[in-house]
Amino acid sequence: MTHVVVGIIIKNTKPESYLLVSSIKDFGKYTGYYYPVGGHVDEGEGELGALKRETKEELNVNIIKAKKIVDTDSDIKNQKTSWYLCEIDSYNFNIDSRELKDVGFFTKEEMGKMNIWPATKKIFKKYIFNKN
């Protein structure tokens, strides 16, 4: 079983906006869909270390705070996903164009009109949008 870790990054604007990326990688029917930044946990690597590494590699920003939300089964067979709520040191990105097609901050309203990865939709609905 593979293990993926993702970080939900919230920009405290009015209304709040959420950092989502779209990969160049072919994900079959989910190709081009948006999801939080993250990636695979390498052998011998901890979740937080993997999340920090992936965020640095893909966006060239540093995670300064992270709190685990939940572990879930993935939309991908034989994969576990660990979800974190994160703060980063800068909103000035330098994306890795070899991995990412697009990155941006999107409001809840904008996300409702986008192709969002199904697991991401579920987590946002349960843990982010209904946090009160």
Automatic annotation (TrEMBL):
The EC code for this enzyme is 3.6.1.55
- Leader sequence segment: none
Matching SUPFAM superfamilies: Nudix
Domain Nudix hydrolase residues, every copy: 1-132
Tell me what organism the protein belongs to. Answer: Candidatus Falkowbacteria bacterium RIFOXYD2_FULL_34_120
Q: Does the keyword Protein transport apply?
A: no
In Swiss-Prot or TrEMBL terms, this protein is called 8-oxo-dGTP diphosphatase
The GO annotation for biological process reads: DNA repair; DNA replication
What is stated as this protein's family in its record?
A: Belongs to the Nudix hydrolase family.
